[in-house]
Structure formats: C-alpha cells, structure tokens
Amino acid sequence: MTQLGRILADILVPVFLLVATGAVAGRRLALDSRSFAKVAYWILGPVFVFDILARADLTADLVARVVGASVLAMLAVGLAAVLVGRLFRRPADVVAAGLTTSVYGNVGNFGLAIVVFTFGDSALPLAGIVLLVVNVVGLVVGVAAANWEEGGALVSLGRALTAPMTLAVVPAVFVNVADAELPLWLGRATTLVAAALIPMMLLTLGIQLSEMGMPRFSGDVVRTLVAKLVVAPAAAAAAVWGAGLTGMPAGVVILQFAMPPAVFTALIALEHDLAPDLVTTTVLAGTLVSVLTLPVVIALL
Question: Alpha-carbon dihedral of residues 237, 49, 78, 37, nearest 10 degrees?
Fold first, then answer.
C-alpha cells in the first residue's frame, strides 16, 4: 500500500466513517443538527478546552508562537481571498463570503480528530490552541464581514471573547499555572465529557452535511476552495517558519489550516444573509474535496 493509501485508510477513513454515520442517521432518524451542535458548543467544547489546557505541559513561549503563527496565517489567506475577489470584480457579499470561508476552517469537527490520528493524543493541547484562535478570529471576521457597515466588528468581537470555549481558557490556565490538582470526582468527570467531543462533532458534521444537499460548483466556489485548501496550509507553513516552530507543533498548525471551511460559516451566512447558497455550497464541496487534498498535506508533513 502506498503512503497516500495508508493515510486514507488509517487517518481519514475513521473520520469520514463517523461523518457518514452522522449523515445516514440524520436522514433516517430525522435528527436535528442544531441540538447536537448546541451540546458540543455549550457543554462538550468548553469542558474539552478546560481539560486539555489544564493538563497541558506547554511553555508560554510555545503557546505564543503557535498563536502568532495561526493569526499570521489567517491574515495572509484572508488578504489573498479579498484580493482575488477584487481582481475578479466580484460583488461585496461574494468577497465577504470568500473571506469568511477562507480563514475559518473546520478545526473542530474535522481537525481535532485528524490531528490526533496523525500526531497522537500529545498533539491535542496544541490543536486546541489553534482551535481557539481560529474560532475567535474566524467568528470576528465572519460576523464583521457580514455587518461591516453596521458596526458588526465590535459585536462579533464581544461574541467571540464571551463564547463558552473562550471563557474556559481562564480557569484552565489558572489550574495549569498554579499546578492545582482537581478532586478525583471532578477530574474524571471532565475527562469523560471532554472525550465525547470529537465523536460528537464528527457525527454532528455528518448530520449538518446531510441537511445541505448536493453542492453546485462555480468559479466562486473553486476560487475559495483553492484559497482554503491550498493557500491556507501554504500560508501556515510560511507562518510557522517565521515563528520558529518545527516538528509536531509546526505540523499541527499546518494541518489545522489544511481543513475545509467550517460548517459554522454556513450558520453565519444564513443568520446574516451573506451569500448563504455560496457559503453552504463551499462548505459541503470543501469537505468532499478535502478527501483528495488532506492526504497530500499529511504525506508532506
């Protein structure tokens, strides 16, 4: 079996198997993805962030480098998406949609599982940090792009900084820095809940994708997917080099930035009427096309 074949079999097949299970179950059982998403967003996600960061053995310097590289990569790919949109003289809402789906990757539903299967459980704290950065910055960019003329930047910043997963960082860092030991009953409970996040998010992703229907490719979709699946990991590679990251930390950042657009971008588009058909199509098409692009990125790493 070739290296790409092994990557597909050992890393991507387990992930897509759970996604496919969610898609089939969603249709057969008439499951509502919003209910599953709320459980992950309000309960599993914050507990997961607390659990991995409270127990993580990471230096402040490493965290700063990962955060810096992630932000720099998002700025680079976002700028590229806007410039391409302007170059092709696309409408403002299409440019904003391309910006949102280019910078806001599926580092949660998709990325966490693939990072674990690629680098092992020891990579989870770093993947969690990238998840927080992408979610905070992605939410700010998405909502601000949809409501720029109405002062949406401040509203989106407030929402991002008060999101459950973001708020969980403070107590987690306190426990970590203080080297505090949680009571056994609490430690076991948080670990059990945190372990449920990845399978829950993969099943939820499948349910969400089953609700979207078949994607219709267009020039706008293709350009956005090139930005997200090709330019983004390349920008991340340059960013980690500039930040002095090597080995697994560099690989985690690059791999997270190779993920397809986040499903949450479709929710932003629907909520704010930001070219919702284009964004939804891009999310679904990106998830399907990533079957081809992710093995290449993993093999290069």
Answer: 130
**What is the CATH code for 3-300?**
1.20.1530.20
Express each pLDDT in 202-232 by its tens digit.
888 888 888 877 767 788 899 999 999 999 9
> DSSP code of 183?
-
Task: Cite the DSSP H helix spans in 88-218.
Answer: 92-103, 111-119, 124-146, 152-161, 164-167, 169-177, 184-195, 197-210
253 within 8 A of 259, measured Cβ to Cβ = no
Domain residue ranges in the chain: 3-300
DSSP codes, 277-296 = HHHHHHHHHHHHHHHHHHHH
- Among 100-109, 190-199, 261-270, which stretch is predicted with the lowest mean pLDDT? 261-270
Distance between CA atoms of residues 94 and 221, nearest Å: 10
CB 252, CB 226: distance < 8 Å: no
Alpha helix locations (H) across 43-123?
A: 45-55, 60-87, 92-103, 111-119
Place of tokens 């949109």: 85
| SS3 at position 228 | helix
Token pair 């993805």 is found at 33
Ramachandran angles phi, psi of 105, nearest 5°:
-90, 160
Distance of CA 62 to the CA centre of its chain: 20
For 32-59, b where at least 16 C-beta lie within 10 A, e where not — what string? ebeebbebbbeebbbbbbbbbbbbbeee
Nearest to residue 221, comparing CAs of 264, 273, 271, 260? Answer: 260
φ, ψ of residue 216 to 5 degrees: the values are: -115, 110
Give me the count of residues in the chain.
Answer: 301
